[in-house]
Amino acid sequence: MTGRFxxxxxxxxxxxxxxxxxxxxxxxxxxWQGASEAxxxxxxxxxxxxxxxxxxxxxxSYAETRAWLERLAAASPLVSLHSFGTSxxxxxxxxxxxASGPQPKPVVLVQAGIHAHEIDGKDAGLxxxxxxxxxxxxxxxxxxxxxxxxxxxxxxxxxxxxYNGPHLRGPENPGTRNxxxxxxxxxxxxxxxxxETRAMLRLLQELDxxxxxxxxxxxxxxxxxxxxxxxxxxxxxxxxxxxTNWLNGxxxxxxxAHVREAGHNPHxxxxxxxxxxxxxxxxxxAEGPRYSTDYGDYAxxxxxxxxxxxxxxxRQRVLGAYxxxxxxxxxxxxxxxxxxxxxxxxxxxxxxTLVVRWERDDTPLEVIPFTGVAYETYTSxxxxxxxxxYLGRTEEWQMPVIGQRPVASVTLPAAWWVPPAETxxxxxxxxxxxxxxxxxxxxxxxxxMVQVAGARLETVYDTRVRMAGETVHQMRSVTMPAxxxxxxxxxxxxxxxxxxxxxxxxxxxxxxxxxxxLAEPRGSLERYNALPMAExxxxxxxxxxxxxxxxxxxxxEQAANPQARLDWLLxxxxxxxxxxxxxxxxxxxxxxxxx
Length: 595
Description:
Blueprint: H1 3-19, H2 50-53, H3 62-75, E1 79-86, E2 92-98, E3 107-112, H4 120-134, E4 145-149, H5 154-157, H6 195-207, E5 211-217, E6 227-230, H7 241-261, E7 266-268, E8 282-283, H8 292-299, E9 303-308, H9 314-334, H10 336-348, E10 353-379, E11 386-411, E12 415-418, H11 423-431, E13 437-438, E14 443-461, E15 464-480, E16 485-488, H12 494-501, H13 527-540, H14 542-554, H15 556-559, H16 562-570, E17 582-588
Parallel strand pairs: 3-4, 3-5, 5-9, 6-7, 8-11
Antiparallel strand pairs: 1-2, 2-4, 6-9, 10-11, 12-16, 12-17, 13-16, 14-15, 14-17
């Protein structure tokens, strides 16, 4: 390496040591001012939040956040703190309940910090809790109770570093995306590996919220919107039709108006088709219940993903998140009859099929006006490729929106049958609140049983080795042992059960690797068993011997392989081991599979 390289590295090290860690460079900042700036407390306010006190340069630690909230709870009867679990490193998971009156009301559940570097919702929530408790905004909890989880990924939150989240314009001390166990909590709803996820699933069942809001910060490209949000499948490929209609209608119109009044610019969460040529358009897609929004969709819970825009300053993002939470509380309270009716309608629905695979459809769903940020392309001396450079000014574009089309679906059964030995699957059903009945004695059934051709392990994804293979369905007479579970589709969480138990589904227990044993080579006879058996059947059956000799002549490579020769002969014995591996969960197709 050249001396110039080492000189430059030494200069960088000196700069970090002398001035503190320097954040990675970002595109030019867009100017902004808005009415929500009036919400920021004065520097001498006794109830200034830690982030406000720091000028939104830093976000408070777990201990500082908890201490501030405990002090507020002691000062206001509207505020109380509650535990709902423990993290992998032993930190308490807690929520803040903001409620008025003695009777419980429908709950709006808002969580922040599922990705702990995306922590805008925490600091926005602290400001809004204060303003409800002490500053006259208690009408926000007159018709609903607000439950607020300020830090969901608490262990990742405490791994604060200026080197986390280099794509974010503040704060200077963000946490990490994943937990201490390396789990991305927003990929964990279906499989529920993390203790944090299991605690959240229990809380969702306990509260049964009329709205569940999950606050993030984007990655991706630069644009002119600071508050973006979406629903399952971007509101186009959702399972909960009535809920999605309410979210796309009354909720969106109410929230957008409130956010704009506060001086922010809302939009549905945009993802670019091609980050190197942004004006090609935006893409929307269907997703599985590994994500919060799609989990809510399958569980029939109105769920909103909020994505503050990473390239906006932290102060602006926190104030935008405040406006979004406040607008959601107001809009939900004003629309309680409509949203509760939508939830009831979707929980009563029993669709006959489930789409399990989608592919891109290049025919635009629509063309929309979009405020982008001007950019140019240049050849980077670092990458050697054409790269994007943002120019710090907005432009108005017409953007096509590209979606997907379904290419594979399954017809849903009356029920699924789970053997008692599948304890991990049964524990997962319990976590998700899926109902079942357990049989006390063996039962003979005619079930659709699934075999897996080409069962194979895939790459590691969110700490798990996922699995794939081609499914082969066959009706079989099966005796399910005592203790087996019958999981009926006809229940409020029947569609969630389908997403977990149908092996072709993208977030099924099969896909998430609960049955790695299906890819394991199965045992075979020892040679001292196999040789005399193979020799005996050849000697006893002249027709078999002629067929064997023909096969050897037609397959010279296998004829030269002693094990291949033995395997061919053993398929003609009761010890044949060539059946495809079997997925252990059966499908009951009719109203009754008893025989």
